[in-house]
Amino acid sequence: MDITLEKASDTNASLKITLTPADYKPEVDKKLKDYGRKVQLKGFRPGHVPASLVQKMYGKSILVDEINSMLSKTVSQYIRDNKLQVVGDPVPNREEADAIDWDNQTDFAFSYTLGLASEFDIDFNDLPSVPQYEIQAGDAEINSTIAELQQRFHTHSHGEEVADGDTIYGELNQVSAPEGATGFSAKTAFPMAKMADDAKGQFIGKKKGDVVTFVLEQAFPDEKARANATGAKAEEVANLTGEFTFAIDDITRHEPAELNQELFDKVLGAGAVEDEEQFRAKVAEIIQSNYARETAQLLRLDIEKTLLDSTPILLPDEFLKNWLMEVNEGKFTPEQIDEQYDDFTKSVKLQLIKNKIADKADIKVDFEEVMEATRRMVREQFGFASSEDAEMNQTIDRIARNYLMDEKNNGQNYTSTFNQVYDDKVIDYAKTQLTLTTQEVTVDEFKALVENR
Q: For residues 163-185, b (16+ Cβ closer than 10 Å) or e, as one string?
């Protein structure tokens, strides 16, 4: 076998492979013998079909299959052994392949067009520092969060007069029912927040014992809200129209919880804090922890941007655009390929950079790491806390393995999880090599940064 790489430029090359009988004949002969033992042909006992007849019937197809298999393995192995930065897939010269005389040739020549990325290196010492944002919860965020907590843990009180936001309880009666029908009547509750603004004035300021006459569909134009307000079945609501009376029996409203020990204990657990100052400090910690995932994600994006901006890589643009058209089989027009090409090349370059970092740092991912990542996903998805319970852990393991080995998606679950673990390890390593500069920002400043990304 003869293999030659010819580079036309930094980004374009051709790989030429020449095969002689010594390369493929031993395996072809072996497969012909296997066929001879297994083939069943009328007039011959199993295993006694003449070799010449087996050759005539199956020799060509076995030869073609064996050479195609050998080419695929050879090209992949050559790229790995020589650490070629191949982008896209090797493209075979189809004209040469179509011209082969499989019946008479014994030596075969094949060529592949390769798209290559230009040579590059990563030196973390030459890279600029990357900002690592640390959110500082200011008084505005703390006050807003405490106000939300007070509303969430509200108490109930009884009002003297109806106000917006109250819930009023009483008896609802239809003034004039359709002919031949019994008028609708029900004990029910009206949430003022669900009532149309134009109708609220008829109720606000009313007291217990007052009777309000109103048009039901004007107060609750939405049929779902009308069903909730009346307690009627969905199919009956469309017929509930016209004037109704509502006799007010009670008025309740939500009162924000007082800022006291009872609220502190409900929010943080009994005895976690003892006064408002400690409570505010804990709320600030909660706000910061709630943004921990977002700040980590922004750091990741900034690291990737720094790597891309600081690492010039040339790509075979014409080759890649043609390859994208071919592999997508007419799903995209050349114009659509051009529109999305910049994003595609950023993704390609970033993956090349990460692969280079992984190679230099000897970063690898084993099966147990993929399993552990999947276990964490299962625990989060099903709400399983970390536990020493052996039976629970066996259940989590079984679910994780079934997910990774799901044959319905051809191993895509394993591949995607492997890639995520690999990506995380590369970024974590980059964090240890780059200079990270901590920058304190407010919640609003951080939100603005995220929007700009």
A: eeebbbbbebbbeeeeeeeeebe
